[in-house]
Amino acid sequence: MDYYDKIEQLRAHDLLRTVKDRDCRTGRTITIAGREFLNFSSNDYLGLASNPVIVRAAQNALSDLGHGAGASRLLSGGTSLHAMLEDKTASFKGTAKAVMFNSGYAANTGAIPALTDAHCAIFSDELNHASIVDGCRLSAAKKYIYRHNDLNHLETLLRKSQNPPNIFVITESVFSMDGDVSDIYNLDMLCRKYDALLYVDDAHATGVLGNGKGALAHFNVTPNNNIIQMGTYSKSLGSVGGFVAASEAVIDYLFNTARSLIYSTALPASAAAASLAAIDYIVAHPELISRLRGNITACRRMLLSEGFSVSMDLTPIIPIMLDSTVETLRISGRLLEMGIYVPAIRPPTVKTPRLRISISASHEQEDIAHLANALAEARK
Ligand SMILES: Cc1ncc(COP(=O)(O)O)c(C=O)c1O
Question: What pTM was estimated for this model as a whole?
Answer without folding.
Answer: 0.96
